[in-house]
Specification:
Helix content is 61%, strand content 0%. The chain has 14 helices and no strands. It is a multi-pass membrane protein.
Length: 408
């Protein structure tokens, strides 16, 4: 298969992907050597250390903004996720990858603005010393997310049950087992578990630019970075989930920080955490625009030169769509659920397996080889997760009794 034509007018012949470290050290793109150390996989030599690469990938897993290193994307010959799709399946593959990345990042941006919608009014309320919302416009989360979009272009000795929930979730008060940890639970909300976990660990589109920036990049070195990053984030997620649940038990809401407001809205420690989270997600919203806009530009205007009008128009349209979505969707759990059930399995399971099967030639690895069978099983697992999650979420939407809890 003929590869993408490079800016210097030459083509790069296909190279085997699985020939050990020696092949990994060869140039991925053609480059004239002047006697120095040849750059690898790109048109410049990466200088990012192992530790900083772990930090970058960890940030991308946490969704805090490292969704694509712009310098590597715009100034090197690296094949981004959309380009992998094009190499595997031609233009339809590029469209598929672009659509999935767009969906996932719109979901991520919506989740960030959803946090702003419900946390910023509580921060303002705490600064004003109010126990309850005064109903003013600046206490309305819908207004605040629009303003944020325009501008940006504790105490843990909590009793259970506590009085703070008496005015909010009456059905949860004085129920049997309310303050006991449940080691295994199956209910309508279980349908959101796998999608939320999948949404939390998506980082695959960021692996390519991080690999590009890595000093002395090899597959083994990048695998070690991924292992350390995912393990670190897993431990952090696990501790947050366990102690959040052990604090509120059955009273735990979809947005954990919002649950703390039922204990003491003016608590200084919780206020500091709210402010930190708000700063993080608010500054991340414009950064998430880059991969979405890049995917849309590759889909709609692949041959067009850069133009400010197009650049700004896409950003404004995306912000408008996301703001409408955040205002209309009643619960952040729904955003995590639907995006985690569609784009996340695609990016984690389906597309990587399909790309590997399609890109690696059968002459090098036949379809009955161990690695291609594993890739096929991985892809099938993604389809199973997607189908099951969407089915259960749809059933919860149709037959669920309470659709407004959690974020309000």
């Amino acid at each position: 298969m003929e590869l993408q034509k490079l800016t210097n007018g030459h083509h790069q012949d296909f190279q085997n992907l699985e020939e050990g470290d020696a092949t990994e050290q060869e140039e991925f793109l053609p480059h004239k050597s002047d006697g120095g150390k040849p750059p690898q996989f790109k048109d410049f030599e990466g200088k990012t250390s192992f530790g900083m690469s772990v930090f970058n990938l960890s940030n991308s897993i946490m969704g805090s903004g490292i969704l694509g290193l712009s310098y590597a994307m715009s100034n090197t010959g690296i094949r981004a996720y959309e380009q992998l799709g094009k190499r595997a399946f031609g233009h339809p593959g590029k469209i598929l990858a672009g659509v999935v990345i767009t969906m996932h990042n719109i979901g991520a941006m919506s989740s960030y603005l959803f946090i702003v919608k419900y946390e910023l009014p509580l921060v303002i309320q705490a600064f004003l010393g109010l126990q309850h919302s005064s109903g003013e416009w600046f206490m309305n989360g819908n207004y605040l997310i629009v303003i944020v979009s325009m501008v940006i272009y504790k105490k843990f000795n909590i009793p259970c049950p506590f009085d703070g929930f008496s005015n909010h979730t009456v059905q949860n008060i004085s129920t049997d087992g309310e303050c006991e940890a449940q080691y295994f639970t199956i209910n309508q909300q279980t349908a959101y578990t796998v999608p939320i976990l999948a949404f939390a660990f998506v980082c695959h589109p960021e692996v390519l630019p991080i690999y590009t920036e890595l000093r002395n990049p090899t597959k083994k070195r990048m695998q070690a970075i991924a292992n350390v990053s995912i393990l670190g984030m897993f431990v952090m997620y696990l501790l947050t989930a366990i102690f959040g649940y052990l604090t509120f038990y059955l009273n735990t809401e979809a947005e954990l920080l919002h649950t703390y407001s039922k204990v003491d809205p003016l608590d200084t420690l919780i206020l500091c955490v709210r402010v930190a989270v708000l700063v993080a997600v608010t500054l991340t919203v414009p950064v998430v625009l880059f991969p979405i806009r890049r995917a849309l530009l590759q889909l709609l205007f692949p041959e067009k030169p850069f133009h400010w009008a197009r650049h700004i128009s896409i950003a404004l349209c995306l912000l408008f769509i996301v703001n409408i979505l955040v205002i209309c969707v009643p619960n952040i759990r729904d955003i995590f659920g639907i995006i985690g059930a569609t784009s996340a399995p695609s990016l984690i399971f389906i597309l990587p397996g399909l790309f590997y099967i399609r890109i690696v030639p059968t002459e090098q690895e036949p379809m009955n080889s161990k690695t291609k069978i594993q890739a096929a099983c991985f892809t099938a697992l993604g389809f199973i997760f997607m189908t099951m999650s969407l089915t259960f979420i749809t059933l919860d939407w149709v037959y669920g009794e309470n659709r407004s809890g959690g974020g309000h």
